[in-house]
C-alpha cells in the first residue's frame, strides 16, 4: 500500500518521468525482496540493515554508480515515509554514497580533427552538410556542451557576417 502511494507521489508531486518512476519501482521491488528475506518491515529498518542491504549489492557485483542510484531511490523513499509519519527516524540520513571512478573524456587527436573538419569544409554542397560542418566546428572549436548546442535557434546565428550570437 505504501509503495503505491509513493509511486503516486513520484508521478504527481515530484512529476518524475515514466522512465524514472519505473526505475524507482524496480528499486522498491529489490528492497522489498531484501525485507522479505530478512523478515523486516520498513518500520523495523535501522542504519545497520541498510548498510547490509547496500553491501549485498556490492558483493553481488553491482558497480558503485548502480548502488548510488539505489541509495538515492531509498533516500527519497525514506523521506516520503517520514513525511507520511510511517517512520519516526530516517535511517538513510547516515548512509553515504560510494566513491565512483572519474571517467576522463576521450580526446580526439588534433591532426585527425583538422583532417575531418577540412574534409567536411570541402564537401559543403547542401543544407545538411553545411549544418553538420557548423555543428562540428562549434563542438570542437568552442567546447560547447551538446545540451547547449541543441538549444541554439536560427536567430542566434548571423548568416551575413557568419558569426554565432549565442
Sum up the structure in keywords:
cytoplasm, DNA binding, 166 residues, two-stranded antiparallel sheet, DNA polymerase, domain 1, cell division, DNA integration, mainly alpha, Integrase_SAM-like_N
Radius of gyration: 24 Å
Shape: elongated
Please summarize the sheet with the most strands.
Answer: 2 strands, antiparallel
CATH architecture term of the largest domain: Orthogonal Bundle
The CATH class designation of the largest domain is Mainly Alpha
SSE arrangement:
Blueprint (H helix, E strand, L loop, with lengths): L1 H12 L4 H21 L8 H13 L4 H20 L26 H13 L4 H16 L3 H5 L6 E2 L4 E2 L2
Antiparallel strand pairs: 1-2
Helix pairs in contact: 1-2, 5-6
Outline of the structure:
The chain is mainly alpha-helical. Helices cover 60% and strands 2% of the residues. It has helices spanning 2-13, 18-38, 47-59, 64-83, 110-122, 127-142, 146-150; strands spanning 157-158, 163-164.
What can you see in these coordinates?
This protein folds into 2 domains: 84 residues, DNA polymerase, domain 1 (Orthogonal Bundle); 47 residues, no CATH class. It contains 7 helices and 2 strands; from the N terminus they run αααααααββ. It has 166 residues and is an all-alpha fold. Strands 1-2 form a two-stranded antiparallel ribbon. The model has no long low-confidence stretch (mean pLDDT 90).
